[in-house]
Design the sequence.
């Protein structure tokens, strides 16, 4: 079963990479969103898949029955989801503020921190 | 947003969600749930309430600024770790109190306090973000 | 021993305060320490002369085998005594030379720090300790050369010395660590006791080259000789101390120290003899080309260092004795002559040998010191320099190519003979010259050191047995690593070395007579040539140019470009190993599970549409589709907590997205033009495929479940929780979670700050024009 999700993870990584290569800030944020989901799924798949058997210990037992889903990746992903959400919200607000201050959402036009190099060997060519 | 249905339903819905979020938080140790999920539900409750009733009313409902809630949560989580230092264990080692009237009630512990801290941080930080965005210039 | 090494550092800290309190006579107060250290080390003379060695060790980083260990034998003791003895007079001399200088306190501080570093270097037994002190001498040398930091030439010379010697130091570190690896010990005394282990190891050549790189840069061997004359920008006490008597000999010390372990092979002999010989001739010729007293002395120092390396390279017992004898003699006469040059500069205001004459009458003590030291340097009897030179010829005649080696040595010595007379005699005789100041003798501090050292050259020449028993003998034994008979004498009958000496004197006299003409001729030739000093500048310029080119290539200021490089690297890292090593997975046909396939497809289609969407609403919805599908996958594979969390995050994301996107300009299209589209799609595709294949190959091997089983087994029994995921989060790994909620809280604060500052921003700052 892992193979199906592995292919999905690959597709999601490809899509997020494509989005992150954009020069539009909004597309970049969407790329971060897809990247987060791809990464969570990847960790999930790496911990191996078990159908419909959550990592809970039944009442009356002291130790979990064999065959439960791997709890460790789940714990990792759970915090990762919340953190990537916080990051996502922060990025959104940051781009909003950048747009307010700079008047553009095109990253090529955001040159306050790194102005166009002058008198150098190689100017930032448009590639 | 001026939708009559929304404005009527949301206060009740948000209240229910908040209650549910606390339920999810408290049952988290033995069933699916916990501080993170509970916190997200709680934050959603405030977000929906804000959309329906406006920011001012949401701020009134919350009484304290949301970022303060997050701070308190972080503080509680840290305190729960320091408790174990008092008992001579390493930082954040779980400490349990089994009440004399029912020794099987394995609930009162620094671990649950920690989870409550997580809940408050998530509620506070995320509603804080939502509030800040809702605020019009 | 540790205290003795660290004492100069401690005193260095207080030197500026001493100077402020005591004033210009602080030199006399501070010189007490090196004098005391000299007496301390002198106590070892007797035992070491009778063959004893001492090891003092203090733990430093025991886990890495690094100890502050010190080793006292003939070689290290000789150096320690020279450092403290000359150091005493240098401190006195500096006090007089820089009298009234505003930064004299700082100067004392650096000199004392250097003294401690140099002591540590020559006494160190542990290779790491050796390296640390080695680099400390480079750093203090940098500080001292750049003492007149308001002069651009000083700054350049200081930086140049640091780059050259520091670079060599790094090579040395690598060589020392390789040695420790091969020999199985960090202690030199252990490593060198069994040199065959090193010499027969396949890494021998690498070790040798690295160690020699360190030694040659430090001791200014060709082609690294250029930094030493430039270092003459330093005040004269520094030149006398660091750049003639002690620090530049560190490389020679290292070679002598390593001789029992690395020496004796053909390659060692060839490299040392050829580089040493080349340095000897280069230095001697360049010395005659110059007219500045200090530069002439500096170049002869280069020549002398070359001679020492040359002698160590020969490696025969007599050559090693000669090396030690010459080193001893050189430290005395060259230290004295440098101080003389400083005194002349101080007294007359110039160091140009062409303008100086007739100083003998007004500067009698300086003249006496200069004469004695110059006689020793030119190798005339009965001075110790003569004995040293005789032994040099004994050594070269003992080598494998006696005539060639002797010819090289004679040429070098003859040139140095000429320089010795130019520096030591010419300024003091004849009619008084035309100098900027009216010549006058300096205070006692200015000549006492030079006179003492020069007098010692004579005393040790007359009583050569003293030098033999206490200094040269034990040092030569330590260098050779085997016992040998050392018998120094002034007159051994009319034999080959004496003949060589006579030729030297005759040739030297000729060079002296033709000095001015030769100098002018050499100046024309040498200045026209390309030299390593110019090469250094070209190298540095090239380095900066390269750095600029690389920076401009990568740091264009376009975020897109940075992303491009990041993803290209990522793609390379993911793809190349799999292509080269294979990824070793076997594709097993997955079970037909329609539900999973359907959800997977839904997520895929949702995500695929995102790059092509043109409206905000569509984007938000598509993200919802993706997020919910992922939540469903979690639910399907036994992760209700995750599904739940994902669901809530999805809801909140939509809310926040709606709030933000409503305020951003319309989306528009993301069409990048065909070339960029194809390139980006190729990179993205490569990353996607590589990720997928990597995942498949990882999941086709069994997973180590130790940790998961640990948590499952203890979740209820020890942490009283039935939800294992939650127990991991809040109990087993609670510290991680604490960090993570801190991140969430910080993100909240950051967003608040970002939004709170907009009011300030709008009032005070103009919006930059949005260029189109």
Sequence:
């Amino acid at each position: 079963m892992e193979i199906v999700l592995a292919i999905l993870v690959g597709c999601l990584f490809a899509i997020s990479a494509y989005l992150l290569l954009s020069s539009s800030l909004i597309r970049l944020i969407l790329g971060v969103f897809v990247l987060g989901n791809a990464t969570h799924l990847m960790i999930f798949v790496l911990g191996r898949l078990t159908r419909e058997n959550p990592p809970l210990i039944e009442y009356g037992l002291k130790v979990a029955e064999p065959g439960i889903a791997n709890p460790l990746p789940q714990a990792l992903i759970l915090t990762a989801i919340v953190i990537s959400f916080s990051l996502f919200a922060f990025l959104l607000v940051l781009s909003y503020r950048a747009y307010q201050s700079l008047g553009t959402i095109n990253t090529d036009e955001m040159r306050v921190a790194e102005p166009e190099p002058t008198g150098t060997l190689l100017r930032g060519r448009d590639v | 947003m001026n939708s009559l249905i929304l404005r009527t339903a949301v206060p009740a819905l948000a209240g229910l969600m908040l209650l549910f979020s606390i339920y999810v938080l408290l049952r988290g140790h033995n069933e699916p749930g916990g501080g993170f999920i509970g916190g997200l539900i709680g934050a959603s409750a405030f977000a929906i309430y804000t959309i329906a009733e406006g920011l001012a009313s949401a701020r009134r409902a919350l009484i304290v600024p949301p970022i303060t809630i997050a701070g308190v949560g972080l503080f509680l989580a840290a305190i729960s770790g320091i408790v174990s230092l008092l008992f001579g264990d390493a930082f954040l080692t779980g400490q349990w109190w089994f009440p004399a009237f029912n020794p099987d009630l394995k609930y009162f512990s620094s671990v649950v306090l920690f989870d409550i801290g997580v809940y408050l941080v998530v509620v506070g930080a995320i509603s804080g973000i939502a509030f800040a965005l809702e605020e019009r210039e | 021993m540790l205290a003795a090494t660290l004492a100069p550092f401690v005193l260095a800290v207080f030197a500026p305060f001493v100077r402020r309190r005591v004033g210009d006579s602080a030199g006399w107060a501070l010189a007490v320490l090196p004098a005391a250290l000299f007496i301390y080390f002198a106590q070892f003379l007797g035992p070491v002369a009778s063959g004893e060695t001492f090891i003092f060790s203090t733990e430093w980083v025991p886990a890495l085998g690094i100890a502050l260990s010190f080793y006292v034998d003939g070689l290290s003791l000789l150096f320690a005594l020279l450092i403290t003895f000359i150091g005493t007079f240098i401190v006195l001399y500096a006090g007089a030379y820089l009298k009234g200088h505003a930064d004299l306190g700082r100067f004392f501080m650096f000199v004392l720090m250097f003294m401690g570093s140099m002591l540590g270097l020559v006494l160190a037994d542990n290779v790491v300790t050796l390296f640390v002190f080695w680099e400390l001498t480079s750093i203090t040398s940098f500080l001292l050369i750049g003492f007149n930091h308001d002069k651009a030439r000083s700054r350049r010379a200081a930086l140049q010395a640091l780059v050259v010697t520091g670079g060599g130091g790094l090579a040395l570190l690598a060589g020392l660590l390789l040695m420790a690896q091969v020999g199985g010990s960090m202690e030199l005394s252990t490593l060198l006791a069994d040199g065959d282990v090193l010499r027969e190891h396949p890494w021998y050549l690498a070790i040798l080259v690295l160690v020699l790189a360190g030694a040659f840069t430090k001791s200014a061997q060709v082609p690294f000789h250029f930094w030493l004359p430039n270092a003459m920008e330093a005040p004269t006490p520094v030149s006398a101390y660091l750049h003639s008597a002690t620090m530049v000999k560190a490389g020679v010390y290292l070679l002598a120290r390593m001789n029992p372990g690395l020496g004796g092979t053909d390659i060692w002999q060839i490299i040392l003899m050829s580089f040493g010989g080349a340095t000897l001739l280069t230095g001697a010729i360049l010395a005659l080309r110059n007219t500045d007293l200090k530069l002439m002395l500096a170049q002869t120092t280069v020549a002398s260092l070359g001679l020492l390396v040359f002698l160590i390279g020969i490696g025969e017992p007599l050559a090693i004795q000669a090396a030690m004898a010459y080193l001893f003699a050189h430290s005395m006469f060259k230290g004295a002559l440098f101080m003389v040059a400083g005194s002349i500069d101080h007294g007359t205001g110039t160091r140009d040998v062409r303008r100086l004459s007739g100083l003998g009458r007004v500067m009698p003590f300086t003249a006496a010191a200069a004469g004695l030291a110059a006689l020793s340097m030119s190798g005339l009897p009965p001075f110790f320099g003569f004995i040293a030179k005789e032994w040099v010829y004994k050594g070269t005649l003992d080598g494998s190519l006696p005539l060639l080696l002797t010819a090289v040595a004679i040429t070098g010595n003859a040139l140095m003979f000429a320089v010795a007379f130019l520096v030591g005699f010419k300024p003091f005789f004849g009619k008084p010259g035309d100098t900027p100041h009216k010549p006058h003798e300096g205070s006692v501090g200015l000549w006492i050191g030079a006179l003492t050292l020069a007098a010692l050259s004579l005393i040790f020449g007359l009583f050569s047995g003293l030098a033999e028993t206490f200094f040269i003998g034990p040092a030569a034994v330590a260098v050779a690593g085997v016992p040998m008979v050392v018998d120094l004498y002034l007159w051994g009958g009319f034999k080959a070395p004496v003949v060589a000496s006579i030729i030297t004197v005759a040739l030297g006299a000729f060079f002296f007579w033709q000095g001015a003409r030769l100098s002018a001729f050499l100046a024309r030739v040498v200045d026209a040539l390309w030299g390593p000093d110019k090469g250094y500048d070209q190298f540095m310029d090239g380095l900066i140019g390269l750095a600029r080119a690389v920076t401009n290539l990568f740091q264009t200021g376009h975020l897109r470009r940075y992303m491009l490089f990041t993803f290209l690297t990522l793609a390379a890292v993911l793809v190349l190993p799999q292509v080269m090593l294979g990824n070793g997975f076997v594709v097993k046909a997955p079970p037909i599970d329609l539900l999973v396939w359907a959800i997977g497809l839904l997520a895929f289609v949702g995500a695929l549409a995102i790059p092509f969407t043109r409206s905000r609403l569509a984007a938000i919805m598509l993200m919802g589709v993706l997020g919910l599908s992922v939540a469903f996958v979690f639910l399907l594979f036994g992760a209700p907590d995750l599904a739940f969390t994902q669901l809530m995050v999805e809801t909140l994301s939509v809310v926040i997205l709606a709030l933000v996107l409503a305020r951003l300009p319309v989306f528009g299209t993301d069409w990048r033009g065909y070339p960029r589209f194809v390139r980006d799609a190729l990179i993205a595709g490569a990353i996607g495929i590589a990720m997928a294949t990597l995942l498949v190959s990882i999941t086709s091997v069994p997973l180590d479940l130790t940790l998961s089983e640990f948590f499952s087994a203890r979740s209820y029994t020890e942490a009283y929780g039935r939800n294992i995921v939650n127990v991991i989060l809040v109990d087993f790994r609670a510290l991680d979670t604490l960090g993570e909620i801190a991140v969430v809280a910080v993100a909240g604060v950051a967003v608040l700050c970002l939004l709170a500052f907009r009011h300030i921003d709008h009032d005070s700052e103009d919006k930059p024009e949005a260029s189109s």
Summary: Chain C touches chain A through 113 residues (CB under 8 Å). The longest strand of chain C covers residues 54-61. The radius of gyration of chain C is 36 Å. Strands of chain C lie at 54-61, 66-72.
